[in-house]
Specification:
The structure holds 2 protein chains of 2 kinds. Helix content of chain A is 78%, strand content 1%. By secondary structure, chain A is mainly alpha-helical. Chain B is an all-alpha fold. In chain B, helix 1 crosses helix 10, helix 6 crosses helix 7 and helix 10 crosses helix 11. The longest helix of chain B is centred in the first third of the chain and has 32 residues. Classes of the chains: A mainly alpha, B mainly alpha. At the A-B interface, helix 5, helix 10 and helix 12 of A face helix 4, helix 10 and helix 12 of B.
Chain lengths: 307, 299
């Protein structure tokens, strides 16, 4: 039941841009945001809320722009290297931050991300300041593509990655290492008495979450064709947490459901009103108050009842 | 060297005073309600918008410009009375006893809502009115021309510190607040109306934020995005001082003001980085802030 539903959803996503070409850009952004929100959701499982993950999102997007400027022009290499860079940044930042809990963890992530933001915005000579940097159209496995063809490839590439990475993250969350995360949330001391190093469990989660945020950032950079410092601003980090909670942190699909729901709602709402933040803010409050498990939790419950 | 010391110190003080109003409100609310209000910056910018609108009205009607100073205070009281009880009653109260993640997210939702409400009410153009500030004139200190208004700001900040200290240490309400901060359950069981204390403390926090915004209008105006910028800065200051420490927030404001002005004087490219870098260094060494107390680890 669950699997057939997931396959149907992925197929629907694959077909949608053929029926409505304008959806392609929206859906690419949604999948990208879903990756980043998935990263945030992994940490949320351990009870750690990061209002700073946009820094990895932005670091990787800037990574793509820098590498492209340095002469690397292959799509796969650009994505792989910048995600690696985000993961490395996550390892360095995480090594310091996973010692902290609750509000202090949130606060320190915010502080680091704002340092990133201010550097991106202020180092005009290197990063182009608030104008940002252009991301050129890369070649895909040696084939030079026109821009529309590349955007098309980007969408289907992202969709494929969503399935593959999603399965990988699902395996990770279902492994002892993944279950240790919720154990950190419930009782961290007990975990240490059992001989499991909480520090290592959290650092691995932090690196994975940074790499996922990086993957989202790289895709977004390609889709928009430009990276700007606002990618790293704290409100962007807040949006990622919002997407994760809206979708629900109960499973991998949650983050993507949240992102798709939000991006589609956004495209629908802009034609009617420009009070978009108001709608999102209200939706967030309503979901937290009445659907603590998010949209995914709602779907999963329906599915369980139907069975 | 010595001829830059006095301007540097005065600039630092003025910059510290402006940040202090927002930070002390945030830290006060955190200490009493134990909720980190992410929408605090929005209340600052709402205070600024209300004050700017009233000042522009006063100037356009050619009323006495001195009225503007009354207007600044009035707008802070107005915003506090309007939003304080309303927000505490509805949203904040719901989050008591819930996890920090929930509290941060609920107030982040509120932040998003308030940002749009401001845009709908006040538009997207920036508002600016410095006529009342020019009224106060300038003075020559250490060979450098200073706006008297900057000195008024520093005075206001000192007044707020003294006022809060008097309120908390020497009044009945202050003792009730201290009791609630020390042990919420015990305070409740000996008959303190904690709900009333929460509303009052939260409204006082809103008042301080709105006052900061209103005072800043005369020097820097108000534009969309001010709330988000102020939020992180206030957050950085409150964190450096130790969340919940009022005197800590004052000293942290001085540090951030000083670091920022130092950066502006010597490495202008890094002025925006400086406060966060300072926050990062302090928090990595002392995660509970300079004056925060270490709480026992949860078992």
């Amino acid at each position: 039941m669950r699997i057939s539903l997931a396959v149907a959803a992925v197929l629907a996503l694959a077909v949608a841009p053929i029926l409505a070409p304008w959806l392609e850009f929206v859906l690419t952004l949604a999948i990208a945001k879903g990756f980043a929100a998935l990263g945030v959701a992994i940490l949320l499982r351990a009870g750690l809320i990061s209002i700073g993950h946009a820094m990895f999102f932005a670091a990787s997007a800037y990574g793509v722009a820098f590498l492209a400027r340095a002469g690397i022009n292959d799509f796969a290499a650009l994505v792989a290297l910048s995600v690696l860079a985000a993961g490395l940044a996550g390892a360095v930042v995480g090594a310091f931050l996973v010692r902290y809990r609750a509000i202090f963890f949130a606060m320190l992530n915010l502080a680091v991300s704002m340092v990133f933001y201010a550097l991106f915005a202020k180092l005009y000579g290197v990063t182009g300041g608030t104008d940002g940097m252009a991301v050129p159209v890369p070649s895909v496995f040696g084939i030079v593509l026109s821009e529309p063809a590349f955007k098309n490839t980007l969408f289907y590439g992202s969709l494929t990655l969503m399935v593959l990475v999603g399965l990988g993250v699902h395996r990770y969350l279902d492994s002892p290492l993944g279950h240790a995360l919720s154990a950190v949330h419930t009782n961290e001391v007990r975990l240490e008495y059992l001989g499991i190093p909480v520090w290592a469990v959290l650092l691995i989660a932090y690196v994975v979450s940074a790499a996922l945020a990086g993957l989202g950032g790289a895709i977004t950079g390609f889709a928009i064709g430009r990276v700007v410092p606002d990618f790293a601003f704290w409100t962007a980090s807040g949006q990622l947490v919002l997407v994760a909670v809206l979708g629900g942190i109960g499973g991998v699909p949650g983050a993507f459901i949240g992102a798709l729901f939000l991006e589609l709602l956004h495209s629908a709402a802009v034609t009617v009103t420009d009070a978009w933040n108001l709608i999102v803010g209200a939706a967030l409050i309503i979901v937290i108050m009445f659907l603590p498990k998010g949209l995914y939790g709602l779907l999963a419950r329906r599915a369980a009842v139907a069975k | 060297m010595s001829n830059t010391v006095i301007p540097l110190l005065l600039d630092s003080l003025a910059s510290a005073a402006l940040i202090f109003f927002a930070a002390v409100g945030l830290t006060l609310v955190f200490s009493v309600l134990r909720v980190l209000n992410v929408a605090h910056g929005s209340l600052y910018s709402i205070g600024a918008y209300v004050a700017a609108s009233i000042c522009l009205f006063i100037v356009s009607r050619q009323l006495s410009p001195y009225l503007s100073f009354v207007a600044l205070l009035f707008s802070a009281v107005f915003v506090a009375a309007l939003f304080g009880p309303l927000i505490e009653r509805t949203l904040i109260r719901w989050t008591y006893g819930k996890s920090e993640a929930v509290q941060i997210l609920i107030t982040f939702g509120l932040f998003l809502i308030l940002e749009d409400v401001q845009r709908m009410v006040f538009g997207v153009q920036s508002l600016y009115e410095d006529a009342p500030m020019r009224l106060l004139g300038t003075s020559l200190i250490g060979g450098v021309v200073y706006l008297n208004y900057q000195i008024v700001l520093i005075g206001m900040a000192i007044l707020v510190i003294i006022g809060l200290r008097l309120l908390i240490r020497h009044t009945r309400l202050g003792r009730l607040i201290t009791a609630v901060v020390a042990d919420r359950e015990m305070a409740q069981s000996i008959g303190i109306d904690t709900n009333r204390i929460f509303i009052l403390a939260f409204s006082l926090g809103v008042f301080l934020a709105a006052l900061g915004g209103a005072l800043a209008v005369l020097t820097s105006g108000v534009a969309p995005g001010l709330g988000a910028d102020t939020m992180v800065l206030a957050f950085a200051v409150a964190a450096i001082g130790g969340l919940g420490q009022i005197e800590g927030a004052a000293i942290a404001s001085l540090i951030v003001g000083f670091v920022r002005v130092l950066a502006i004087y010597y490495v202008p490219a890094l002025d925006a980085v400086a406060p966060y870098a300072a926050m990062l260094i302090v928090l990595l060494i002392r995660p509970y802030g300079l004056f925060g107390s270490v709480t026992a680890r949860r078992i």
